[in-house]
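Design job #97: recover the sequence.
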């Protein structure tokens, strides 16, 4: 039976975009669950070092590695460095993501491309590297029932169209079918691939949506559960999806959105 307190004991996890926001909190949640965590980041190193230091201070193991997830060479180098340090990998959390919002007719090709590169191609490159490692290593049933797990961070916008965010919504719609396709292709090899679709989570990416009282009131109208999410809400969902408790779950999306996808404007029963 798996350890309920540390369900990810002896497992190695790599989280992309782990120095801030949802990625940071996911790194903490995975470490609390017993995993050693590779903290991928890009740009400023200090926030990644802080995540590593916090995990180590609580007795965990972590390593910061810089890589642009949209660069094949950098992704390959990151997985090599990670496996050199920890031996192998059991969990990939494809979290790194960006927004470049713009009215569609004004949207520069570069903004379309950048969002697709990071949000979709990044998940392709990292998933490919992770699956190659899972297949190379083979099953370790005493550590994890599944040979390997991938969690892709999608969004409620894999389902909800989003004006002025065509690049972002298209990238997340792509993530949904990437997840389902990989889950289908690798289920027989005992690799589980799922996604978490967060709604409004309080992070820097959507600062404008919750920073003022007016904006927050408007946002809360779209969230039946009556609060903006915390990054920890997503981290907890990830830990469960990665654990043996979710061993029969593959190819699905766990929506973590306080009900945002439930058409809240229909909740009065009128109309
Ligand atoms: C976006 C946020 C937005 C949320 C709900 C997320 O995917 O990154 O900016 O607040 O969806 O609309």
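Job complete. Output follows.
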């Amino acid at each position: 039976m798996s350890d309920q307190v540390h369900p990810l004991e002896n497992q190695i996890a790599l989280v992309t975009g782990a120095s801030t926001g949802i990625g940071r909190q996911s790194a903490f949640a995975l470490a609390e669950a017993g995993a050693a965590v590779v903290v991928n980041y890009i740009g400023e190193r200090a926030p990644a070092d802080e995540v590593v230091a916090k995990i180590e201070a609580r007795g965990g193991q972590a390593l910061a590695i810089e890589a642009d997830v949209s660069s094949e060479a950098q992704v390959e180098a990151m997985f090599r460095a990670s496996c050199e340090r920890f031996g192998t990998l059991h969990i990939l959390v494809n979290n790194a993501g960006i927004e470049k919002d713009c009215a569609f007719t004004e949207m520069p090709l570069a903004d379309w491309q950048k969002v697709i590169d990071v949000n979709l191609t990044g998940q392709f490159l990292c998933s490919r590297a992770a699956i190659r490692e899972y297949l190379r290593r083979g099953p370790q049933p005493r550590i994890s029932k599944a040979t390997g797990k991938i969690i892709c961070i999608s969004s409620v916008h894999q389902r909800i169209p989003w004006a002025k965010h065509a690049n972002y919504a298209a990238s997340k719609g792509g993530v949904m079918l990437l997840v389902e396709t990989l889950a289908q292709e690798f289920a027989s090899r005992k690799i589980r691939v799922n996604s978490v679709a967060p709604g409004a989570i309080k992070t820097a990416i959507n600062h404008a949506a919750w920073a003022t009282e007016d904006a927050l009131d408007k946002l809360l109208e779209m969230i039946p559960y009556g609060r903006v999410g915390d990054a920890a809400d997503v981290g907890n969902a990830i830990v469960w999806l990665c654990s043996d408790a979710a061993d029969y779950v593959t190819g699905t999306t766990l929506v973590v959105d306080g009900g945002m996808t439930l058409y809240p404007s229909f909740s009065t029963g009128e109309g």
